[in-house]
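Revision sheet: structure tokens.
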Amino acid sequence: MGGVGWAGAFGTMPTPLLLFVSVLAFFHASEAALVLVLDRASYGPSSWLFSRPYGAAMALALVEYAAEYAVLGPRWKGWSAATVAGLVLVVAGEVVRKAGILTAGKAFTHAISTQRREGHRLVDTGIYGVVRHPGYLGWLVWSVGTQVLLANPVCTPVFALWSWRFFRDRIAYEERVLVSFFGKSYRDYCAKVPTYIPFIP
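Predicted:
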């Protein structure tokens, strides 16, 4: 059953697609704005969190959405329970991530610090008392939520697996660095506070 396109992608966008674009715009603008507010000296192009692999992944998401919309139409790719569920995941992910950034303040950086800076302390209060890596957990939930929002059955598990593998490796590396900074204090913290990311204790 073929669906009608949305005026060659230049007409009125379907609600999920409009939400997707809005979600991406808010995420990247808010990340850059928080760097400006919390640590202006580290602000730069990377503060917007764009990369080629990320751009390719989001482009793939749009290709899937457009292809399925062309075949299935708005009944399956328009506003639905998936849109609502995806939006809930996106908001939850943003809340967890931004709470982590605001709690850590200047201790939060987009790039992993390999040298301990003056005043660098172990943050274990606020959301860090509940979730060990709220920035990573929040981003994982957010990224999967963007695909649920679009009702993308291919990209949803792909994004989940890709995000999980990325954070598995990043967390392992970052925690070795943090142990070198804080020693037993960080080991004790890890033993008490989980990541809540599956298979990453």
